[in-house]
Amino acid sequence: MADFMKLLQQAQEMQGRFQKIQEDLERVTVTGSAGGGMVVVDANGKGSITRIKIDPSVVKADDVEMLEDLVLVAIGEAQKKAQDEQQREMGKVAGVLPLPFKLPF
């Protein structure tokens, strides 16, 4: 029974750490870019887009499709970096609790 109580206590501590990580990830900024920095996208560590910056030289009425592609690439890169940051931070906490299985991060 003492082992179960210890495991329960560790689980509660881990839950608190996960909560703190989630709060910290909201304050992290990751950046994705495309076109050599002509389109830059910032996101928080949870993947929510917080800013998009577009160099005026890529805003051309006759080539909107290229601009759309650059924006998509930059957003994808920022979200991938945010996902990597989440996995890195969650992996730190998951290693603390001795579970007989791997957590899906």
Describe the fold and architecture.
By secondary structure, the chain is of the alpha+beta class. It has two helices and three strands. A three-stranded antiparallel sheet has the order 1-2-3. Helix 1 runs antiparallel to helix 2. The two termini are 30 Å apart. The model has no long low-confidence stretch (mean pLDDT 87).
Keywords, please?
alpha+beta, three-stranded antiparallel sheet
Largest sheet report: 3 strands, antiparallel
**How many beta strands in the DSSP annotation?**
3
Beta-strand proportion:
15-25%
Which residues sit in consecutive blocks of at least 5 with pLDDT less than 50?
none
What is the average of the pLDDT values? 87
C-alpha termini separation: 30 Å
Main sheet: which strands, in order across? 1-2-3
Which overall shape is indicated by the principal axes computed on the Cα atoms?
rod-shaped
How many helices? The count is: 2
Q: Give the H and E element order.
A: HEEEH
Short précis:
This protein has 105 residues and is of the alpha+beta class. It has two helices and three strands.
Element layout with pairings:
Layout: H1 2-27, E1 29-34, E2 39-44, E3 49-54, H2 64-94
Antiparallel strand pairs: 1-2, 2-3
